[in-house]
């Protein structure tokens, strides 16, 4: 099954709803799922506004069960490399790609931050929804971003809490890169949670596009 | 593990290892899966690769037939060649086996098509 970029957003989201998520999310890796509507809107924006998915060589960094990589494959990516440290997450990714008959996704179990690859500027496009970097992992989101930029000859697309926007702006400047928020998204909660006391789970998220400075 | 992936894997993060490239492939199960052919994409990917490493890797798992040992000029215009490259890069997959670091001999298992490149803390430089 390979769709083209003209696939409607709703169709893409429908497919991504079928993607299985984490069975037992592991706190140590800060595993949390990228909701299907966020993945769909992000990927659709990346393709329709920047043409950075179709026919591209793509890295899904810290892929988890692989929703971004799978969505990229559905939108006509040339080939997707998906990396994650967690074996269980890659197992689910494996089953997802089998079920959806996607044959252009290849996975590596490795620590994205410990370079086990010769991938300097190797990928056209890098996609990630990095760990937020709480408590024991402060700054891990920035390390992911920095490594992502190193791997990319084009752009890195990354999801971050909107509350970190000014911090990321500062970092991008420090690193001598260009970047901007290209979409503001929201983690939708199911209606059943509307009156739940944890309303703060409704999180505003930015989709960043970061790239090397053009001369 | 597709050979496009093998082409970029190294074990240079291992303590005492300088280049850790290329990793030798020991395959106990290789399969071929059909992937849509996109000549423009393949032509653009080839210059990023170490072609000799790809050839040796393909040969080591019995899939080098018809694949030239060296790249010819204007390869991107040769559709027949691009089809062969496409097959070797994207369609041939090592499902089970292991990779071996050329310097330390450390083995990395490949299971269900996924190479496990994780190192424990004591192994990292």
Automatic annotation (TrEMBL), chain A:
CDD domains: AdoMet_MTases. Residues 54-138 form the Methyltransferase small domain. GO terms for molecular function: nucleic acid binding; rRNA (adenine-N6-)-methyltransferase activity. Pfam families: MTS (PF05175). InterPro entries: DNA_methylase_N6_adenine_CS (IPR002052), rRNA_MeTrfase/Polyamine_Synth (IPR051720), Small_mtfrase_dom (IPR007848). Belongs to the methyltransferase superfamily. PrmA family. PANTHER family: RRNA N6-ADENOSINE-METHYLTRANSFERASE METTL5. This is Methyltransferase-like protein 5. It comes from Manduca sexta (Tobacco hawkmoth).
From TrEMBL, chain B:
SUPFAM superfamilies: Trm112p-like. GO terms for molecular function: protein heterodimerization activity. One of its GO terms (biological process) is rRNA (guanine-N7)-methylation. It holds the Pfam family Trm112p. Gene3D superfamilies: 2.20.25.10. CDD domains: Trm112-like. Belongs to the TRM112 family. This is Multifunctional methyltransferase subunit TRM112-like protein. It comes from Manduca sexta.
